[in-house]
């Protein structure tokens, strides 16, 4: 059985996470700012579906994006040069989360519940969670959100209502003063943009170092 976290129970070592399902570490606890920040500083993130208990994960290997390795295709570079999107930071954080939570294709919804939205909106209010947004003609066209600690950015989710909008937002994130972007799990889409897998012990070592360095988002 996986450990069950009471209110003040510390997280178990990430090395004790299950191999199958990959990275499942613990259940229970809460989504308070203190618990969430403690998790991210240890390379742990929450991920659970409606009807499930709160689950905590630290997969091995870990999908990451080094900002300088972002793959800017010729077509995306053309979109950037066209100034088709206005880029903003933190102007519509909750709206970005709700767009990320909306149904996609044949999926009725995502794991981003009202409970998760409330928890991350509070983190945003406290200055720890941020959104990168692509706007077009005065409307939110795409974006992403995540948690920032020091020079680490922990990406949580992204969405597009207009082609390339989320890619442009991710490119803008790569221009910010972060040395490593956590992408959590492998997807072909992220790999196509330059993300790669990193052994968990290397990821945790980077987290330990980078979360101690102060950093500030650019306008």
Summarize the model shown.
The protein is α+β, with helices and mostly antiparallel strands and 219 residues long. The strands form two sheets. It has a seven-stranded mixed sheet, with helices on both faces. Strands 1-2-4-3 form a four-stranded mixed sheet, with helices on one face.
Helix content: 25-40%
According to CATH, what is the class of the largest domain? Alpha Beta
Q: How many H/I helical runs?
A: 7
Domain count: the total is 2
Q: What is the alpha-carbon Rg in Å? A: 17 Å
Order of helices and strands: EEHEEEHEHHEEEHEHEH
Mean of pLDDT: 95
> How far is the N terminus from the C terminus?
46 Å
Structural class: alpha+beta
Report the biggest beta sheet as strand number plus sense, adding barrel if it closes: 7 strands, mixed
Order the strands across the largest sheet as they lie in space.
6-7-8-9-10-5-11
Beta percentage is 25-35%
Q: What is the CATH T-level topology of the largest domain?
A: Aminopeptidase
InterPro entries: Acyl_CoA_acyltransferase, Leu/Phe-tRNA_Trfase, Leu/Phe-tRNA_Trfase_C, Leu/Phe-tRNA_Trfase_N
Family: Belongs to the L/F-transferase family.
Protein name: Leucyl/phenylalanyl-tRNA--protein transferase
GO molecular function, one term: leucyl-tRNA--protein transferase activity
